[in-house]
Amino acid sequence: xxxxxxxxxxxxxxxxxxxxxxxxxxxxxxxxxxxxxxxxxxxxxxxxxxxxxxxxxxxxxxxxxxxxxxxxxxxxxxxxxxxxxxxxxxxxxxxxxxxxxxxxxxxxxxxxxxxxxxxxxxxxxxxxxxxxxxxxxxxxxxxxxxxxxxxxxxxxxxxxxxxxxxxxxxxxxxxxxxxxxxxxxxxxxxxxxxxxxxxxxxxxxxxxxxxxxxxxxxxxxxxxxxxxxxxxxxxxxxxxxxxxxxxxxxxxxxxxxxxxxxxxxxxxxxxxxxxxxxxxxxxxxxxxxxxxxxxxxxxxxxxxxxxxxxxxxxxxxxxxxxxxxxxxxxxxxxxxxxxxxxxxxxxxxxxxxxxxxxxxxxxxxxxxxxxxxxxxxxxxxxxxxxxxxxxxxxxxxxxxxxxxxxxxxxxxxxxxxxxxxxxxxxxxxxxxxxxxxxxxxxxxxxxxxxxxxxxxxxxxxxxxxxxxxxxxxxxxxxxxxxxxxxxxxxx
Amino acid sequence: xxxxxxxxxxxxxxxxxxxxxxxxxxxxxxxxxxxxxxxxxxxxxxxxxxxxxxxxxxxxxxxxxxxxxxxxxxxxxxxxxxxxxxxxxxxxxxxxxxxxxxxxxxxxxxxxxxxxxxxxxxxxxxxxxxxxxxxxxxxxxxxxxxxxxxxxxxxxxxxxxxxxxxxxxxxxxxxxxxxxxxxxxxxxxxxxxxxxxxxxxxxxxxxxxxxxxxxxxxxxxxxxxxxxxxxxxxxxxxxxxxxxxxxxxxxxxxxxxxxxxxxxxxxxxxxxxxxxxxxxxxxxxxxxxxxxxxxxxxxxxxxxxxxxxxxxxxxxxxxxxxxxxxxxxxxxxxxxxxxxxxxxxxxxxxxxxxxxxxxxxxxxxxxxxxxxxxxxxxxxxxxxxxxxxxxxxxxxxxxxxxxxxxxxxxxxxxxxxxxxxxxxxxxxxxxxxxxxxxxxxxxxx
Lengths: 491, 445
Prior knowledge:
Strand order of the largest sheet of chain B: 2-10-9-8-7-3-4
Oligomer: heterodimer
Number of helices of chain B: 14
Number of strands of chain B: 17
Radius of gyration of chain A: 25 Å
Largest interface: A-B, 212 and 217 residues
CATH architecture of the largest domain in chain A: 3-Layer(aba) Sandwich
Number of domains of chain B: 3
Largest sheet of chain B: 7 strands, mixed
Structural class of chain A: alpha/beta
Distance between the termini of chain B: 59 Å
Shape of chain B: globular
Strand order of the largest sheet of chain A: 1-7-6-5-4-2-3
CATH superfamily of the largest domain in chain A: Type I PLP-dependent aspartate aminotransferase-like (Major domain)
Radius of gyration of chain B: 25 Å
Structural class of chain B: alpha/beta
């Protein structure tokens, strides 16, 4: 399909700003002015509407397709939360209003939402304080690790050097620890998908700053030894970090704050169903216990004794500003509305059905695909396409087969510790019929891998494009319409 | 209780049977009694209607009817209706990150177009597919410059947003980088102060145009001087101003970042916003964040993919260029559509309107005796005025008259308690500006 730039006709306009009602002759002195106009498209509004409507139709999305992406929690995004987030009382609110003297009275609705979200999240997770500021899950991780660093610094402990991370962790975990200045140590998993305790004990010493753990893990396994792990880490005054990516599996069944964790982040775009937006924006609120609360980023929202919500910057030990404002407010409104609707029972039912659906798919596919851990799973299950790979059909081939069946593929090649990994998370919002259809297609893929493995090379066949040449994309870099495609002389 | 759960009780029975357990609770047997919640004391759920009523009532407790003359890097621009109409399509906003390119060409092509428009706007060769917001984008750019140069000294101009400067300090205070902040002289970057500090250990000079006080500048000389000692230069820009202003590429910048909120995103009480980053092509492999590239499919047709992924955390883990996983794809899409609807001429017209209205406001305000409009440097749509009393008190009084009068600079600059930063976008009418001046006069008298 043509690019919007290729539809451009010199002189065509898509928008009219009207005649100015003030004198219009101001001039930027020429030394400060651009020499040529920005080469943005010159198209009509109708051109734009058709172009982007057609582009949208080239996407799979939750609104159109089943998305059993492991570790991504692609549940249905309710429409009413969208409508609420688009109310002008939220969208037109300038963030600096709240920082003006007396400005809190102009922003009470917004501040109340932030305050109540903190209370809800604390009760859901067993922590004492939350900040809504982090703008994504990985941003929450980085914030959490900086809180860890602030804690060690406040105790004058300069020895802390390492953050321990299981091999099943998301790549953001080691990257966040590294960005915050720590080295990382990877711990292998045992045959049940839990953490190898002996390896952990061997790795922990006075230089251990903390541990980052995803519970349930990306193997879909709840870590049974959590109390013991937390004892080992706390014995050296390390900090226990809970990656909340998989919180959807344990709401009302386990609270990180009760089982030894000191800090966590929540991905609102997973558990609290704020839309993924084709890759963001997300939101990654961070919760802490009292050990870390004084280090939380500023500002914080507090309720004064007269019931008025205000921004409070008076936390001398705070790590400071981690984002420009108070978080991705538009998404936090959606999460707030979703929680209010579900309430205690609804949230618990979420977890129950997420786990039920995941186990159903796991048992149904077990005869056909090699299961990684033969035990009840939590919100997702991990298979290996190793049997199919022996026939020349790899996880990626099965993924591409599913695309032709109008199903978004599960997560493949992750966790990285599982060869040919296929990681399946159906979420609670999918019906048995949708899952049965997926199961049938997965069985069909297995059968086809036995009868005609060569057929897989051509999948997908029904999409607007076939498999892309990714090597060419990385070699002949063309990342803009205006850039001549050429190998980079990159530094 | 949870209307989004679709399984019927009969189906639940069938599924439990298939799994081989009798009751649903059995699925949680792996969570030992000691690990169960000590409390889960949350309110009962509500109907959709009840939530709509409650949250709508909260939205009405925010006063968005006050006439905004407040900016500070975040502006009340008009957003053509077509923009949000298109981004409201479920095919866009309920899609995941385009890791499977064959079924995500819509998102991928739109991001490629976003990157292209950002390159057109800034004049730079390459753009990534967006970062969280303007402040965190500047932090990522600083880290990128440190990686490229292998040096550890950072010179930051006092005209860079104080909010951004605070963010940069938070992220680096426990790391071993040296920061030096240079003061603003007569509204613009002080060449002398910057040049004094430049040396062969300087990794990067960080500048902003227009700066936080609204002043515009030609930074070509500073950039050339920085390059002469092997340092890089980052310029943080306000994209709408680039409808008229000299581009950072024309000035010689190496990395360009900024807050993209002005490109069709609502103010939204601080987010979601759009951090953007552009750079010279030779630095592309050191860039953080997702990047969409053009390639061909197995039949030779043009298509788009996430490219250079070997930089990213899901491949490189602790050795990645950043810990960032997400971009703000939907916000980038929104900006791409905004730039397409407004277009080449529209952006210029929009920028001119901002300039004209701000100049008109300057004229009107300078007629007030106790107001001094600072004129030491040219400005775009935001400017600084000096008052004869505390600006934050004036702002509080102006609020009662229905105006968000501006941002009191004393909030971030000690000693500037009597200075007010005033923003005037294309949305402000002549009548609003006149009423604003009248109200200000009343408050000051």
